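Both lines are quoted verbatim for reference:

——
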Amino acid sequence: MMRLRPLSELDLPLVRTWMRDDPHAPAWSEDDLSGLIRAASDNPRKTRRAWVAEDAGFSQHGSALVGFAVATALSIPGAPMECELEFVLVPPLARRRGIGSALMEIVLSWARDLGAKEIWLEVRKSNVPAVRLYELCGFAITGSRPGYYVDPVEDALLMRCQIEVDDGSPRIMTP
C-alpha cells in the first residue's frame, strides 16, 4: 500500500542517490536538499514543500521509498498565488505503478489549498514519459525555453495546469 508524506531528514541519503543517478534530475546542492525539510523559509513569500511516496511492499536500498516531489508557492501581495512543480522523481524500478500520478495529485491538492488557480513546470523536451505524465494530470504545453537545461544543453517545455475549485476538491481544467 502506498503512502504519501512530507520529506524527512532520514529520506535525504536515498533522494540524493536517486538525483545523482537520474540524468533528468536537477543538480541541486546539499543546501538545496537540506533546505527542503527546514520548517521556516528565509523568504516569507516563498514556500517550498517536498513529499515522498512509500510502499511497504517495495524495497530498494533497504527502503520503502518509491518517489519524491517538490513544489514551490510564491505569494506576492495583491497578486494571485503562483505555484511551480519543481521536480517529480520515481526511480526506474518503481515506475509505471501510479506513483508519479499520486505525487502529482498531492502537489495539485497543495496548490489548490493555497488558493492557486494554476501551477507551472518546465521539463526537458526529450523527457517524453514525464511530458505524458504531466499531460495526463491536466498540464498543457504553453511554450518552450531554448537552451534552458545544461549538461546536456536542451530546450525546456513550459507546461501549465489550471486548477478550478468548486466543491473543495481540485478539478483540472482542460486547456
The longest strand covers residues 154-165. The beta strands are 2-6, 46-55, 65-74, 82-89, 118-124, 140-149, 154-165, 170-173. Residues 74 and 167 are 24 Å apart (CA to CA).
